[in-house]
Amino acid sequence: MELGIIGLPGSGKTTVFRALTGGVDAHDEKGHRGIGLGVVKVSDPRLDFLTKFHKPRKTTPVMVQYSDIHGFGEDRPRDNTTALEKLMAIVRPLDAFVHCVRFFDSPFRGPAEPIRDFTTLEEEMILSDMGVVERRLERVNRDIQRGKKELSRERDILTKALDLLDQGLPLRCLRDDGDLEILKGFSFLSVKPELILLNVGENRKKGSTDEVMEQIRSRVHGQPHVAIDWLYADIEAEMAAMTPEDAKEFLEDLALDEDAKDRIIRTSFRLLNLIVFFTAGEPEVKAWPLLQGATAVQAAGTVHSDMAKGFAKAEVISYEDFRTSGSMAAAQKAGKVRLEGRNYTVKDGDIMFFLFNTQNTKR
Q1: What CA–CA distance (Å, rounded) separates 282 from 255?
Q2: Can you tell me the distance from the alpha carbon of 95 to that of 88, in angstroms, rounded to the nearest whole number?
Q3: Which helix (H) or strand (E) holds 279?
Q4: 255-266 burial by CB neighbour count: b if 16+ within 10 A, else e?
Q5: What is the rounded distance in angstroms from the CA atom of residue 257 to the CA atom of residue 295?
Q6: 335 burial level (CB within 10 Å; 0-12, 13-18, 19+)
Q7: What CATH architecture is 2-271?
Q8: Around Cβ 119, how many Cβ atoms within 10 Å?
């Protein structure tokens, strides 16, 4: 899962990046600011249990990659085509944006105005997409006039997209999944799922944070693929440099149940409609992210394309059934292990072993 942290200058997105990545610094060895990249292992008690049980040679958790992206708001290149193309190349493969919104007073930027800042960047992304749509529509219309009738479907989708943008709505509001799939081929910003993350000053009370989040929630009411969360970025970044024991004590002093990093990852999973299934054995215990509603054959393809090509059956047991049974043999004896076909809908926490025919993988 790849998430890009964006925000207006002064929103504290680089501090948010450090907080979410456990202290990774988004600067090179010469101190120049660049596109920071940080990879985070997703903690999962289920994976820990399976590791203790199987004692594998290798354990592989789900990984989340965060990018600290500059180039929006005042920093955004407008006339520099090369810089803009570089920005789009970074943005294009991202699964979602983490939109950082300032909710702390700044000596340089003044009092916090989170609703204004949120709206400003949203409008900028919509205007950017509008320019891309208009240019593409002009080209498509010319090509259709020259006889390329196969572009009629694309023209209809782009026209629908332009109408949506004219209303001030992001492209992720397009309801038809087929339309969204076609639009993914373009460098659109507002089509991506978005986690709106309020960067809260430590002097702000929880009640005021809840009030601002509710105001933002009302602004995006009815929009799909949007989630809202918050964090004390300065505090979380400071905790990243502590030992686990000191960090836990610090959290208790702040009356917080957990650090924001794990909570925001869970929010991101819900935003992207992802679940986790496991493959487990002596060689390796591994957690795999999967789109909710995916089938057993799609899960097999996530592990290896040959498993999907030669898929025969999947041996499945839920994590809870395995944990309470105490062993695979006991689970089988209790009838908790099932053989499922290719169209079985994978559930969160399923432990799966794929049976496949190697002959079917040959071309």
Answers
A1: 40
A2: 13
A3: strand 274-279
A4: ebeebbbeebbe
A5: 35
A6: exposed
A7: 3-Layer(aba) Sandwich (3.40)
A8: 15
SS3 310: coil
Neighbours of 110 (CB within 10 A): 9
Q: Which amino acid is at 106?
A: S
Residue 348's contacts (CB-CB under 8 Å, 6 or more residues apart) are 275, 276, 277, 292
The whole-number pLDDT of residue 80 equals 53
Q: How many other CB atoms sit within 10 Å of the CB of residue 315?
A: 15
Alpha helices of 39-80 — where are they, by DSSP H? Answer: 45-54
Cα–Cα dist 328/201, whole Å = 49
Domain 293-361: top CATH class: alpha beta
Name the band, by pLDDT with cuts 50, 70 and 90, for residue 31: very low
Average pLDDT of span 266-283? 94
One-letter amino acid identity for 107?
P
Give me the numbers of helices (H) and strands (E) for the chain, helices first please. Answer: 14, 12
Tell me, yes or no, if the two domains 2-271 and 293-361 fold the same way. no
pLDDT at 32: 46
Name the CA dihedral angle for 15, 74, 205, 98, rounded to a multiple of 10 degrees.
-60
Encoded tokens for 180: 């969204």
Give the start-to-end residue ranges of the domains of the chain.
2-271, 293-361
The angle formed by the CA atoms of residues 213, 37 and 26, to the nearest 5 degrees, is: 85
Residue 188 exposure: Cα atoms within 13 Å on the Cβ side: 28
pTM across the whole model: 0.86
